[in-house]
Specification:
seven-stranded mixed beta sheet; Rossmann fold; binds S-adenosylmethionine; DNA polymerase, domain 1; alpha/beta; 7 strands
Length: about 325
């Protein structure tokens, strides 16, 4: 079920292009948002990315009746500009719906959650180290850092130490084994009602395995460069780590900055590249969160490229 559909439709409809033109769906997933736009706007075309080839095929099947208006690219959205060079400056909307889909938890069999006992893999595209490799080979400090930074877990050191102790006996191979180790590492009186203690650890490993945050930062710069003046970037985050990157990037673009320096060292010219259309992130309304539990933590930020903005990547 696509998150914040009404808000997104409004941002597309009320733009200068009024729902016509080219939309890049950076995270097509099962195709929910793309389907929404294709159904509503007869004159929209979509280029849809997903780094997971399996889910991309689900979207392709779902959107078969719109086949003439949507193209699919199986790659990381960190590489959008490599694929979209020929439409640079001619994209009207870019959408991000970060994270993973319910398909990943329920059907992929790749160990994203602990509702089932599955092999600890967590790779979206089969590339790089799996969660199992990290859990069994990273040193204790690295494990604690991953769990603290990407899971914001205060018990990160205890959990890392418990993992290292457990794997001395036998490698940690499955989601169930890891969840049990985490459960045992956090004192019972600190367990939070209705939230499994391993939730943050699984989030942390998934982010590390897929370098999720690095991909967001790289892609947002490129997205701005692809937009036509008046075009909009719409980004839905599900935790503060994602939202912080979007907020920081939009603010920098809003004050005419394309560099990655700390604000005090930034020498960018100061002519805004974008207008922020959401000063604070928008949240889904209560009806939506009652209908769709995944929407509960969603935050939407939107910015619009200004007509006088200089092309992205050129600094004076
Ligand atoms: C929350 S789901 C998207 C759901 C989709 N908007 C819908 O309505 O069905 C996020 C999707 O983004 C994909 N994804 C995550 N990181 C990605 C990246 N760096 N590049 C491309 N796709 C990515 C995941 O594989 C997942 O399918």
């Amino acid at each position: 079920m696509p998150v914040m559909p009404g808000e997104l439709l409004r941002f597309v409809e009320e733009s200068e292009f009024r729902g016509t033109g080219l939309l890049v769906d950076c995270t097509v997933g099962e195709g929910g948002h793309s389907e929404l736009f294709l159904n509503r706007f007869a004159n929209i075309r979509i280029i849809a990315f997903d780094r997971d080839g399996e889910i991309l095929e689900i979207a392709r099947e779902r959107l078969r009746k719109h086949a003439g208006r949507i193209d699919f690219i199986n790659d990381n959205f960190a590489h959008i500009s490599q694929h979209l060079g020929q439409v640079r400056g001619r994209v009207h909307y870019v959408l991000y719906d970060f994270g993973i889909s319910s398909y990943h938890f329920d059907e992929s069999g790749r160990g994203f959650g602990f509702a089932r006992d599955e092999r600890l893999d967590m790779r979206l595209d089969g590339c790089g180290e799996s969660a199992e490799e990290i859990v069994n080979t990273a040193d204790e400090k690295t494990l604690a850092d991953i769990i603290f930074r990407y899971g914001e877990e205060r018990w990160s050191r205890r959990i890392a130490s418990a993992i290292v102790r457990a794997r001395r006996g036998k490698p940690v191979g499955t989601t169930g084994e890891l969840a049990d180790i985490v459960l045992g590492a956090i004192p019972k009186r600190f367990h939070v009602k209705n939230i499994h203690p391993a939730t943050r650890v699984f989030q942390a490993l998934r982010i590390a395995v897929n370098d999720e945050l690095g991909a967001i930062g790289r892609s947002l710069d490129d997205a701005h460069g692809l937009l036509a003046p008046g075009g909009r970037i719409m980004a839905i985050s599900f935790h503060s780590l994602e939202d912080r990157i979007v907020k920081d990037k939009f603010r920098r673009l809003g004050r005419g900055c394309l560099c990655s320096e700390e604000p005090r060292n930034c020498r960018c010219a100061g002519t805004p590249y974008v207008k922020l259309l959401t000063k604070k992130p928008l949240r889904p309304d209560v009806e939506e969160t009652a209908r769709n539990s995944r929407a509960r933590s969603a935050r939407l930020r939107v910015c619009e490229k200004l007509a006088e903005a200089r092309p992205s990547g050129i600094l004076s």
